[in-house]
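Re-running Probable protein kinase UbiB to confirm reproducibility after the cluster update. Everything else is unchanged from the original entry.
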Amino acid sequence: MRIVRLYQINKVLLQHGLDELVPDRWLPWSARFMRKTIFWIQNKHKNKAAGERITLALQSLGPVFIKFGQMLSTRRDLLPPEIANELAKLQDKVAPFPSEQAQQIIKQSLGLTELSELFSEFHPEPLASASIAQVHAARLHQGDQDVVVKVLRPDIRKTIDADMELLFTLATLLHKWLPDGKRLRPVEVVIEYQRTLVDELDLMRESANGMQLKRNFEGSEALYIPQIYSDYCRHNVMIMERIYGIPISNIDALMAQNTNMKTLAERGVEVFFTQVFRDSFFHADMHPGNIFVSTEHPDNPQYIAIDFGIVGTLNKEDKRYLAENFIAFFNRDYRKVAQLHADSGWVPGDTNIDDFEMAIRTVCEPIFQKPLAEISFGNVLLQLFNTARRFNMVVQPQLVLLQKTLLYIEGLGRLLYPQLDLWQTAKPFLEKWMDEQIGVRAMVGKIRQNLPFWSEKLPDMPDLLHDGLQQVKRMPLQHLVAHQQMVELQSQGMKATHYGIVGATFILLAAILPLYQMHWAFPATSGIIGLGCWISSWRKSHSSGLQEKVF
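Result of re-run:
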């Protein structure tokens, strides 16, 4: 199965001429030889531009590859504009599956004979189509509310499972054969990626994620989450309030309504850090196809987010280390950054902190006090990767989603307001969060949080205190009794040992006496005495063992 899928992937790449985009000098002779041997697979898209060919190829390969293309589409600093523009079509313009099939899935999942039982209107033409699902516009009878109906692509799980098997095979090979295989932990990264993809295939989980995010940002001026109609949600169908906004990638429309782009970019950073550090629950699929801007109050712009299939969480330890790293980084305290990496186990314990500090300073110092437009993140990422490899920095699979989301946010900031000072925007928020986690305010907050538990246990405190004092009072007597029992056990054990030695001596004597032609009564008597001593030894040792168990 894996070999078949690998052949299919190579076939798609060759049919779209993607091998022609790689200069010959970058390919080993073996790769060039193999390409010539597969002469029957020809480029069928010679007249199309490179960006269009890449987009069509990724779309043909399925959701795992489309997700990769979506992330690349936000990195306009790493890709030529014509390729980035084509990849952006993967965000919501993937080829749809037949509308009749979608309607049948909706009826079966919701137990409807006809769609008109639930909807006063239903638009067969998809409103948007992505890698995992497609969306249809509709109107509910209930409240005459405009909604969208999200329908999972049929048999999508089989395609994802096949691709994940192949990724596991490749990851295992990388782990074994790459010099950095153990440090990069490719198998763990693929496991984490598989978990997020499988979660995205359950629209019941997505609806729950959306309701959690809506509760977290209730009344927020920065982010609006549409209402989800949980009564009509199933594992492959979800119904949600229809929103009307401007896609975040439509800069011309945002400028036409005089949107405050600086505030919009800063709020993107605020929303990200709020989700991560306040809620420990963040939208982890924030590509431009899932983000809109409200048309109300362009001078005070508000984001609208959709598609909650992929969310990320952080435990307290990772969140604390990340916050401290960010703050130390913003303060240019590279020594602390290096020390935090060593303390958290992200680099080996024997790492030379002085050398590590100097390497981090070399990469990061040139990018401070610069707006996003003047930072070459391609060069920065390359230097960071080389630094990580040099110091054997271990990849943290649990942070892969966060890193991907941070790339999305940085890409959106570059798109919206290239003059954004990312460091100065994020630093006050993180300092405020750390202040709430450490010191008097944090202590008061924890006391307030635990107050219901303490108030419930407070009436029992006098009885618990009295019982504790009684136990302390009885402790000397208990220790004395325990000591006496221990002495008795040791005495029993010593007696058992002595009887065993005496018994062995008499048994040995009983075996030797016949050699001296003595009367049979002497060895018989010796044997009986030895056997008796052994029986006594066994009884005492058995009695000692029982007492020890009781004790």
